[in-house]
Amino acid sequence: MSNLSRFLKKNKIVKENVKFAATKSLVDENGNALEWEFRTITTAQDETIRDECTTEMQVKGKPGLYRPKLDTRKYLAKMVCACCVDPCLDNAELQDSYGVKKPEDLLTAIVDNPGEYQDLILFVQKNNGFDTNVEDKIEEAKN
Q1: What counts of helices (H) and strands (E) characterise the chain?
Q2: pLDDT for 143
Q3: 104 with 90: CB under 8 angstroms?
Q4: How many Å apart are CA 123 and CA 23, to the nearest integer?
Q5: What is the pTM of this model?
Q6: Residues in CB range of 92: below 8 A, 6 or more apart
Q7: What is the DSSP-derived secondary structure letter of residue 135?
């Protein structure tokens, strides 16, 4: 097998969907928290979400000079929604039952406990490879 052939798409490992109980406020008939299903998103999908959540902000005291500013809260909510397979956060009936019209609003209506919401965001980030920071990578490289 040549070196190039190892990089062909057919050799790429496909990451399986994972389950996570996003909130303890929705339970099954046995009182167990309902598990949600999540997928990973691609780099291209992530970049699209980042672009949707980035605005150009003028630099103070520098007319005509702008810098990008990411709305982190919006980005994280959109990323979680893009990864969520079940429940379908685009479902009109589900949105109507909570009185909302956007997946991001439905997400925060269902997971209305701030601690659970933070745990969900961390879970989805980790599942998408955002599980180490730059300092961790530097420390790992030193060892």
Answers
A1: 6, 5
A2: 55
A3: no
A4: 12
A5: 0.83
A6: none
A7: H
Nearest Cα to 40, choosing from 130, 100, 124, 119?
124
Tokens of 76: 């994280």
**Residues 21/24/25/30 CA torsion (nearest 10 deg):** 90
Q: Which two tokens stand for residue 35?
A: 């598990």
- Residue 85 DSSP code: E
**How confident is the model at residue 64, as a pLDDT?**
84
Query: Which residues touch 95 (CB under 8 Å, ≥6 apart)?
Result: 89, 101, 102, 103, 105, 106
Q: What is the mean pLDDT of each run of 10 residues along the chain (143 residues)?
A: 82 94 96 97 96 91 88 97 98 97 98 97 96 60 58
Q: Which residues is 66 bridged to in the sheet?
A: 58
| 3-state DSSP assignment of residue 33 | strand
Task: Give the CA distances from residue 1 to residues 4, 8, 13, 14, 76, in Å, rounded to whole numbers and listed in that order.
Answer: 8, 11, 18, 21, 41
Instruction: Give residue 66's pLDDT.
Output: 86
* pLDDT number for residue 27: 96
Structure tokens at 50: 């980042």
> Residue 48: what residue type?
T
In 3-state terms, what secondary structure has residue 55?
strand
SS3 content of the chain, % helix, strand, coil (to 5): 45, 15, 40
